[in-house]
Every structure is written in structure tokens, then in C-alpha cells.
Amino acid sequence: MSQADSAASSAAPIQVPAWLRGWLVPLALVAIWDLLTRFKLVNPLLLARPSAVLASFKEQLAHGDLLPQLAASLERDLAGFAIGALAGLALGSVMGLSRLADRLVGPTFHAAKQVAIFAWIPLISVWFGIGEPAKVVFIALSAFYPVVVNTFEGIRSVGREHIEVARVFRFTPLQVFRKVVLPGALPSIFAGLHLGLIYSWLGTLGAEYLLAAGPGIGNLMIEGRESFQMAKVLLGVLIAGGVGYGLNALATKLEANLLRWRVRSA
What angle do the packed helices 230-258 and 66-97 form, to 10 degrees? Predict the structure, then answer.
């Protein structure tokens, strides 16, 4: 082998397996976390060791507390998401299909959209109390806004020429919507549902943390904070992040499968 070939081979980048690339940063963070706590470079009362978090996970599983808490959060999340997504699809469709409805409702909606989602909690708590109904309403509101916006924009993005061609072929208004408008708007609608699913999970954690205590991952973190068990708090944070990652991956997979026809027709 020549000297040039040897230099080229030594300068070649290290190949990292594709399945490992997404884990490099999390694994590096866990390693840094372990080093900081192992050598007491941070206060161990404020940052528990990874091994302590793992022990807390095993303890919660053994006592049968973790799975019911997780199930309660997911049930609450999906209920709120379903309500918010259905309401968002309805309002976004009406505003997108009717310019009169957009002129009547649009300004009010866009003004309400500017209010931070957590600013609605005092009003929700007055109207619905601080129990389960209030939590579901707050989660539904978290999913509502992105679904409305993306549904509206998706419908409005459909070219007028496509609608005119459909009318030339004497399509009924329902056929125009079902065969022309809806297929053209689906990518944007799915993007809104994807965002709504993510925001509803964030809203779930916020509702559990800020409203009345009840079963859920947020309650797990509250219990850890009040008893100063940082391992339990960090366990709740990791579970929340893992569930959020899983919901995002599931939504991405479903969106890719349901919109596969766009790739084939492109």
C-alpha cells in the first residue's frame, strides 16, 4: 500500500451503525450524568445517580404503582386529544371551506390563539373545577389550536383550478370535498394532528402538575418533589420523555403509511 493510500485510509471517517446514531447523544448524556454524580461534582440531593433512578423504576414496578399511573396519563391524554382534534377538524374545515365563516370566526380564533395555553387554567378551573373534567378540557385545548390552523391552511392550499375542473365534470359539493379538497389537504391535516398529539401530551403533564392531584405521571413527579426523592422525579421526567418520543414515532409512522399514495403518485 502506498503512503498516499495509507494516509487516505487513516483519514477515513469512522462508520457508525445507523441504528446507533440516534442513541449517541442520549448515551453520552447518561455517561456525563453518571460521572457527575459518581464523583459528587454536583449535589447528590439535587441530582440522583442513574443507578438510583433505575432502582426507583424497579421499586415502582414491584409495588404496582407505575403502570396504573402511566395508564391514567395516557387515558387522559387520548381523551383530551380526541375531543380537541375533532373540534379542531370541524372548525378548521368550516373556516377553510367558507370564506364567510373565516371572516366571522377567524379574527376571534386568531386572537384567542395568542393567549398562552397555561393562561387558560384559571378560567378552566372556575368553569370545570380542578378535577378530571378540567384536565381533559385543558388537554383538548392544547390539541385544538394546531389542528384548526393546519386543517384551515390545508384546505385553502388546494388549487382553485382543481376545484373548477371538478365542477366542469359536474361533481356535487360533497364529491368536490371528498375527491378533490380532502386529498389535497390531507398532508397538512395530518401535520396538524401530529402536532396536536404532541401538544396534548405536554398538556397532560401540565394539567397533572398544575391542577388537582390524581393518578398520573405528573403526580409521580409531585410525590417525588414533596418527599425530596429526586430519583422518583427524574424517573417521571424520563418516562414523560419516553412516552412523548413514542407518540411522536407512532404518529410519524401512521402519517407515512396513510400518505404513501402521495409517494407513489409523485
Answer: 40
If you count them, how many residues does the chain have? 266
DSSP letters, 209-265, are: HHSS--SSHHHHHHHHHHTT-HHHHHHHHHHHHHHHHHHHHHHHHHHHHHTHHHHHH
- In the structure grid, which three cell numbers stand for residue 243, read together? 412516552
What would the grid cell of residue 141 be? 385545548
Superfamily of domain 50-265: MetI-like (1.10.3720.10)
pLDDT digits (tens, 9 = 90+) for 136-192: 999 999 999 999 999 999 999 887 777 777 776 777 777 777 778 888 889 999 999
Q: Which helix (H) or strand (E) holds 67?
A: helix 66-97
Nearest to 157 by CA among 189, 128, 131, 111: 189
pLDDT tens, residue by residue, 23-35: 888 888 889 998 9
Whether 96 and 152 have beta carbons less than 8 Å apart is answered as yes
